[in-house]
């Protein structure tokens, strides 16, 4: 069961799930969801999050609002049936998000990470 301070909970129910929300009045609404519904809900929530962040952007354009999740662990695997690398990021609370990176994009990411780390190291005061 995953429960947030918002009064929302999502619980397994046979082959599906039950999304529950308890309002301030103590009344609980329940919605039965399939696994496909959960995936659609996730995509919709991510799109809504991006829209909400875009509305909060400062006028100057120098600073950008970003919702970032801390990453505790990473996993990297080759896709068995393709030319992708599977990059999985795991957060401290156990959530995971996997990305399928084409080889060319993975190489670009490696270069950009190396460059960013070098810049970061150069900016740190000597110890």
What is the compact description of this entry?
The protein has helices at residues 35-55, 103-123; strands at 2-3, 8-13, 16-22, 28-33, 73-78, 84-90, 96-102. With 127 residues, the chain is an alpha+beta fold.
Q: Tally the helices.
A: 2
Question: How far apart, in Å, are the first and last alpha carbons?
Answer: 46 Å
Give the DSSP E fraction (strand runs of 2 or more residues).
25-35%
Radius of gyration: 20 Å
Return the structural class: alpha+beta
Order of helices and strands: EEEEHEEEH
Low-pLDDT stretches: none
- What is the count of structural domains? 2
Main-sheet strand order equals: 1-2-3-4
Number of strands: 7
Helix content: 25-40%
**How would a crystallographer describe the biggest sheet?**
4 strands, antiparallel
Shape: extended
């Amino acid at each position: 069961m995953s429960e947030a301070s918002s009064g929302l909970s999502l619980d397994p129910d046979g082959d599906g799930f039950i999304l529950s929300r308890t309002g301030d009045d103590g009344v609980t609404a329940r919605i039965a969801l399939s696994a496909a519904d959960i995936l659609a809900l996730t995509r919709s929530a991510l799109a809504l999050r991006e829209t909400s962040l875009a509305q909060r952007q400062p006028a100057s354009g120098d600073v950008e609002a970003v919702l970032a999740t801390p990453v505790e662990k990473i996993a990297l695997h080759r896709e068995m049936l393709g030319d992708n690398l599977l990059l999985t990021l795991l957060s401290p609370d156990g959530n995971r998000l996997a990305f399928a990176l084409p080889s060319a994009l993975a190489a670009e990411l490696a270069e950009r990470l190396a460059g960013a780390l070098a810049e970061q190291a150069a900016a740190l005061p000597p110890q």
